[in-house]
Design a protein that fits this description.
The complex is a heterodimer of chains A (295) and B (249). The longest helix of chain A is centred in the middle third of the chain and has 18 residues. Chain A has 295 residues and is an alpha/beta fold. In chain A, the strands form three sheets. Chain A has an eight-stranded parallel β-barrel with strand order 1-2-3-4-7-9-10-13, surrounded by four helices. In chain A, strands 5-6 form a two-stranded antiparallel sheet. A two-stranded antiparallel sheet of chain A has the order 11-12. In chain A, a hairpin with a 5-residue loop joins β11 and β12. Chain A has a single domain, classed as Divalent-metal-dependent TIM barrel enzymes (TIM Barrel, Alpha-Beta Barrel), CATH 3.20.20.150. Chain A is 38% helix and 20% strand. In chain A, α4 crosses α5 and α7 packs parallel to α8. Chain B folds into two domains: 105 residues, no CATH class; 126 residues, Outer Surface Protein A, domain 3 (Alpha-Beta Complex), CATH 3.90.930. Chain B is mainly α. Chain B is elongated and about 85 Å long. The chains are: A alpha/beta (295), B mainly alpha (249). The interface between A and B is large, with 54 and 47 residues.
Chain lengths: 295, 249
């Protein structure tokens, strides 16, 4: 019933989170010095393209003729205790229907409570109850939009005493039960590993890399907790740090080439700065050993 | 213990509330400041959204006052849907209800104008009516015709010099507002909404067109309140701004 090939249509190349201020650069010729460079696909936040018309939809229609588009939802609240918002499901179905994107993804998180949208990706305990709820919501979503989705690992600032699954195992089990793919945010792995004191490479080793349809990279901020321990905040407001690029290399060596997205959502820079990050992602892909590329 | 999202959500929006139990760091110690990251993300992102959605109100109030009001508003009226483009719909009435803002009686209208600009920006596209369609009609046929307004057209009626106040708040070097009431028309010629002040009577006339009155019927009712009303001015503004999409004769 579900078309499982669609989520594989993003190219194993760099993409960027689309910001309207970069429209002119993205529609330039590929060889133009201030053009798109190696960027082959774009990701949009679904909720920003649910108006009736105007510039956002016009730009999206234009860009979709040239780039593969990934639709990334930030508002469905898949981990919410309440039922999914039926109106929002209908809007997602409509957007995915007319745009026919290469991929649709959402988060292992919740953001709505009692019909109040809290505009943040809030954490979940990894328990049996959460597992069945998340799987039921993903089944419902995949039925509504008629395709497979990718589920993204969150960045964590705290842990739940009641959790009895590790995050990679939890995500693998959700994927096994629902058939959904996974979106691996390597920066989130680094942020969570620092904040919760686990090994980032150990997390990658445990992750179901064969289910990964897309990789995210972004910048984070640094803070401290009550005890002076480092507390990293996933801000998407600066360059990807070197240890995250190293973790990307580690991941790609094991996973083979994947579509890699640069996310930059706050203090959005001029195009050349973002392009430089995409070029770096392109290097990471191009230096993969031929055996990995064949994998 | 089982952490409930009700408890989590309530503590998120109440800065003084204790951090819910069952949340911890890697060593099993209470989450403390770690919970504050989520609290801050929610409050800061919603405050930022209000600044972006209401730049003129924010400019008139100053950043500190706007931050303070945003902090109250986001707790009283958190977004009702994940479409942040709709966040702030109750902000004009909220401002009108704040006793300490009663000396700034025009603020709610400025907020209404900013909401209308946002609605116009996201409104459905529609092909504009070519001016020739009107030019080809006899005077009698023209007065009997009905006009279809574009979805992006917005009309604001105000007892304040609303357009001048909005310009003063958002444009460097704009003159200080004069004390006279101004109605405002918003059209969207291309993708960017354009606000313009309307001559007296025009808002009445456009509002009558919107509810299906003919050009002539709307003109007659407008003359009752504005005897000098000249419909060519608002008609030209609507035509030039792509604000008309059809003509029914």
């Amino acid at each position: 019933m579900l078309d499982s090939t669609r989520s594989d249509r993003l190219p194993a190349a760099p993409g960027v989170g689309y910001k309207p201020q970069h429209f002119d650069a993205l529609i330039r010729a590929p060889e133009h010095r201030d053009g798109p460079g190696p960027v082959r696909w774009l990701e949009i936040h679904a909720e920003n393209y649910m108006g009736d018309g105007g510039r956002p939809l016009a730009q999206l229609r234009h860009l979709a003729e040239r780039y593969a588009i990934s639709v990334h939802g930030v508002g469905l609240s898949i981990g919410g205790e309440g039922p999914l918002d039926a109106d929002h499901l209908t809007r997602l179905k409509s957007l995915v229907g007319w745009l026919n994107p290469a991929s649709f993804s959402e988060h292992l998180a919740w953001s709505t409570h009692d019909s109040h949208f809290l505009n943040d990706l809030l954490p979940l305990p990894y328990t049996k109850a959460t597992l069945s709820r998340v799987c039921a919501h993903i089944d419902q979503l995949q039925d509504a939009i008629g395709r497979k989705m990718l589920l993204e690992n969150p960045s964590s600032y705290l842990a739940f005493a009641e959790s009895d699954w590790s995050e990679p195992d939890f995500l693998a089990e959700v994927s096994r039960r629902t058939g959904c793919g996974l979106l691996l945010d390597v920066n989130n792995v680094f942020v969570s590993a620092t904040n919760l004191e686990f090994s980032p490479t150990g997390y990658i080793d445990a992750f179901a890399l064969d289910k990964v349809g897309e990789i995210h990279l972004g910048g984070h901020d640094e803070d401290e907790d009550d005890h002076g321990a480092p507390l990293l905040i996933d801000s998407h407001g600066r360059e990807v740090v070197d240890p995250v690029w190293s973790l990307l290399d580690y991941t790609l060596d094991k996973s083979g080439p994947k579509p890699i997205l640069i996310e930059w959502d706050t203090d959005v820079p001029d195009w050349p700065v973002l392009l430089n990050e995409a070029v770096r992602a392109d290097w990471a892909l191009s230096k993969l050993a031929p055996t990995a590329v064949m994998a | 213990m089982t952490q409930s999202q009700t408890e989590f959500a309530e503590a998120l929006l109440a800065p003084e509330a204790p951090v819910p139990g069952g949340l911890q760091d890697a060593a099993g110690r209470p989450a403390g400041r770690r919970f504050a990251v989520y609290r801050n993300n929610v409050a800061a992102s919603l405050t930022e959204a209000l600044h972006e959605g209401f730049p003129a109100v924010a400019s008139l109030l100053g950043k500190e006052n706007m931050d303070g009001l945003a902090g109250i508003y986001l707790r009283q009226h958190p977004p009702a849907s994940p479409l942040m483009m709709h966040f702030g719909g109750e902000f004009p009435d909220f401002l009108a209800g704040m006793r300490q803002l009663s000396h700034l009686g025009y603020l709610p209208d400025v907020a209404r104008l900013e909401l209308a600009l946002r609605r116009s920006y996201h409104a459905a596209d529609a092909a504009p009516l070519p001016a020739e369609r009107l030019a080809g009609l006899s005077p009698d046929a023209l007065m009997a015709a009905r006009l279809q307004l574009a979805p992006a057209v917005e009309l604001l009626r105000s007892d304040w010099p609303l357009f001048d106040i909005w310009c003063y708040a958002t444009q460097e070097g704009a003159p200080k507002p004069q004390a006279s009431a101004q109605d405002v028309l918003i059209t969207r010629p291309d993708f960017d909404p354009v606000a313009q002040p309307l001559p007296p009577g025009s808002a009445q006339w456009i509002a009558a067109l919107r509810v299906g009155h003919s050009i002539g019927e709307a003109f007659e009712t407008t003359l009752e309140i504005a005897p000098d009303f000249d419909l060519s001015a608002p008609l030209a503004l609507l035509l030039e701004g792509g604000g008309l999409t059809d003509l029914m004769t």
